[in-house]
Amino acid sequence: MKSITRRTFGGGMFGVLVATGLRPTSLQAQTPQDLIAREGVLQLAPANYPETQVWGYSGAVPGPTIRLPQGGRMTRRFVNELPQPGTIHWHGIRIDNAMDGVPGLTQDVVEPGETFLYDFVLPDAGTYWYHPHNRSYEQMARGLSGALIVEEADGGPEVDSDEVLLLDDWRLTEDAQIAGGFGNMHDWAHAGRIGNWITVNGTGDWRTTVQRHSRHRLRLVNTANARIFSLEAQGLEGWLIALDGMPLDAPQSLGRLTLAPAQRADIIVDVTASVGEEALLVNFERDGGYAIASFDVTAVARSERLDAPSPLPPNPVPQLGPLQTARTAKLLMEGGAMGRMDGAMMGGQMMGMREMAGAGKVWAFNGMADMPDAPLVAANRGETVRIDITNDTAWPHAMHLHGHHFRQIADDGTAGALRDTLLMDRGETAQIAFVADNPGDWLLHCHMLEHSAGGMMTWLRVV
Ligand SMILES: [Cu+2]
């Protein structure tokens, strides 16, 4: 891994410049770029609707795509020009704990008008993203998120284009403004804030032109508060090559793709639709499918499809140790509407569901609705940790672990793909395991943002 830091490099440059008598004007280039969270306006709804007032990085939705090489440094000065305190979480990056962006755990909130320097190494190639971690159920519903793409050292697979598609779900009023009611306990106790308008990269009509038999890498990111996407490609055939940033051991033939909040999927597709046709990415709901992205086929790239792609090079994630001797914890998820939970611990005392809801909590982990004082697990650095999770609720949840990627362990003991966010269906149990190699305090929470705010949050310590 490249370990030369920006500061070390800068120091060296300064010396050279002075020695040769040049004015060190290039030092200006070393001032970190700003990433400014501020208000903006955007044509989110169709053209016959007004523009929408949003919150965005650079005032845009999505925020700027940050592309950097594997092993490089991500350096941005976060400037908070919003009327609320904020932070930035760099989702999926196996990051230096102090840069993880969790208020009260890894840093203080950044007040309006204040700044915070994010500066960290990118150990893994892949598709990651950034978003607020303070009042995220409101700040993300208003539009704050962006992609962080870490490029493979070998330049990545050969494709005709590499597209980042950020899928979002908005709850808009009739005049296309962001609907209020962010603290609506009905949403919090049910599926979360489900919207009424789907966008890809901030537009409800995302489309591009392609050529028959051209090959494209699509990096899909679910940035919605709570909506689960269920996607199929039509007129595009290909492979799933990575999940949550991490390469699969072998590309898998592409079928129906479920993308829970915060999950990512990298796919490679060849255009198999003919000239004059439209290839589609379709999202399926109970009552049918609708296109969320369109690819107009305008020409022929080549007479036949290319050969199947090779796997992406693996990232340097440590191998799991033996699970029999792993440090083990149990996590019971309870609460919500139509659940069996009567109450949970809040503020040091037992509270009934009604009292809890009055205080803004409707879920619990291991009987606690507050963020607990003690970690769910305290692991020594390098230990393999196993967590047995039971979703004893009537709702699906997308469980996200910070600072590490884990594998789901099947009943027969086989380990699944590396992930940072696991979708668990109602009533489902899952066993996850990972090597706790990243020191610090790390959140484990539901990424349905109303659920985490409503009590589905705990943390782990690695020392
Ligand atoms: Cu949830």
Structural write-up:
This protein is mostly beta strands. 7% of the residues lie in helices and 44% in strands. Strands 10-9-12-17-14-15 form a six-stranded mixed sheet, with no helix packed on it. Strands 23-20-25-30-27-28 form a six-stranded mixed sheet, with no helix packed on it. The two termini are 23 Å apart. The protein binds copper (II) ion. Copper (II) ion (CU) binds next to loops.
Describe the secondary-structure layout:
Elements (H helix, E strand, L loop, with lengths): L5 H14 L13 E10 L9 E6 L8 E4 L3 E8 L7 E4 L23 E7 L4 E7 L3 H4 L6 E6 L9 E10 L14 H5 L7 E4 L5 E7 L2 E8 L6 E6 L1 E8 L2 E8 L3 E3 L4 E8 L6 E8 L2 E13 L26 E9 L7 E4 L2 E4 H6 L4 E3 L11 E3 L3 E9 L5 E5 L4 E4 L5 E5 L1 E4 L4 E8 L3 E7 L2 H5 L3 E6 L1
Parallel strand pairs: 1-4, 3-8, 9-12, 11-19, 20-25, 24-32
Antiparallel strand pairs: 1-2, 4-6, 5-7, 7-8, 9-10, 12-17, 13-16, 13-18, 14-15, 14-17, 18-19, 20-23, 21-22, 25-30, 26-29, 26-31, 27-28, 27-30, 31-32
The structure holds copper (II) ion.
Unreliable runs, pLDDT <50, ≥5 residues?
Answer: 1-28
Query: Would you report the number of β strands?
Result: 32
Bound molecules: copper (II) ion
Q: What fraction strand?
A: 35-45%
- Terminal Cα separation, in Å? 23 Å
Alpha carbon gyration radius: 23 Å
Helix/strand class: mainly beta
Count of individual helical segments: 5
Rounded mean pLDDT is 93
Tell me roughly what share of residues is in helical segments.
under 10%
Main sheet makeup = 6 strands, mixed
Q: Shape from CA axes?
A: globular
Major sheet strand order: 10-9-12-17-14-15
